[in-house]
């Protein structure tokens, strides 16, 4: 069975390719990214929203090359090098941008402690329920497994959507909650085309929110062409993917 890295298009395409071209100069912050990765897109959206200078470096995380393992021993993208330190984990990286670049606005977390905690609760919901249901729906092949996985996704999404204040999740201000879910909204056409998922089934508020989010400039500019995504997601749809995430789902473990 071929390894996923043999099928991964080597670089970003479309709007994301143009953005990569603008971020080749050396900078104190080096962003190790894989153009196809939803976790990478989170950090990338946050960088773009805040206008933080960065150097983009493309990595194929499936190759587990020594130079990259020295930065992230888990061998996962996204990762950062900053001031001689290596940092990784998409949500932690996004919060790091808030802490390390306070002069760069907009701030993506509310300053009020209660609102800040609420934002983190919604992000926790994304990590613990929304992303796993998306990952479980992808390999569900037979109609019954698909129906069960789809209903689980709808129910998790409805619970999340009940909290949408509009236009963004927390209200008027675009926040880390929107950043954390946007990459899966950009990719939900995969489950629409292959697994019978419909945004409208979640509800009107979700459909409107998803439509707004996928048109946000930072989201559009960090997205590559769909045609290059197909070989990667094809492996998940056929349940052949050998990524850490795919193995974890198969074995019933938490996603790394
Ligand atoms: N929890 C990590 C997950 C990152 C992750 O799974 N990245 C994938 C690409 S989308 C990866 O590097 N996979 C390499 C592998 O599974 O070996 C985060 O939030 O940054």
Automatic annotation (TrEMBL):
GST N-terminal domain span: 27-105
Domain GST C-terminal: 112-232
Domain of life, source organism: Eukaryota
Organism: Hypholoma sublateritium (strain FD-334 SS-4)
Protein name: GST N-terminal domain-containing protein
GO CC, any one term: cytoplasm
CDD domains found in the cross-reference section: GST_N_family
């Amino acid at each position: 069975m071929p390894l996923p890295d043999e099928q991964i298009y080597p670089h970003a395409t479309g709007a994301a390719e143009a953005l990569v071209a603008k971020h080749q100069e050396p900078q104190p912050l080096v962003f190790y990214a894989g153009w196809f990765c939803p976790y990478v897109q989170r950090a990338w959206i946050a960088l773009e929203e805040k206008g933080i200078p960065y150097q983009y470096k493309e990595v194929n995380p499936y190759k587990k090359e020594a130079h990259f393992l020295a930065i992230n021993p888990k061998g996962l993208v996204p990762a950062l090098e900053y001031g001689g330190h290596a940092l990784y984990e998409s949500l932690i990286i996004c919060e790091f941008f808030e802490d390390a670049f306070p002069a760069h606005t907009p701030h993506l977390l509310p300053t009020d402690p209660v609102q800040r905690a609420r934002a983190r609760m919604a992000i926790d919901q994304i990590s613990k329920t929304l992303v796993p249901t998306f990952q479980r729906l992808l390999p569900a092949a037979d109609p019954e497994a698909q129906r069960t996985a789809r209903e689980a996704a709808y129910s998790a999404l409805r619970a999340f959507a009940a909290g949408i204040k509009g236009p963004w999740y927390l209200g008027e201000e675009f926040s880390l909650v929107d950043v954390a879910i946007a990459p899966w909204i950009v990719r939900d056409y995969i489950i629409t085309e292959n697994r019978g998922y419909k945004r409208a089934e979640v509800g009107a508020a979700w459909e409107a929110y998803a439509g707004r989010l996928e048109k946000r400039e930072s989201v559009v500019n960090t997205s590559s062409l769909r045609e290059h995504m197909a070989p990667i997601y094809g492996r998940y749809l056929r349940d052949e993917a050998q990524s850490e995430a795919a193995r974890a789902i198969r074995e019933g473990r938490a996603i790394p």
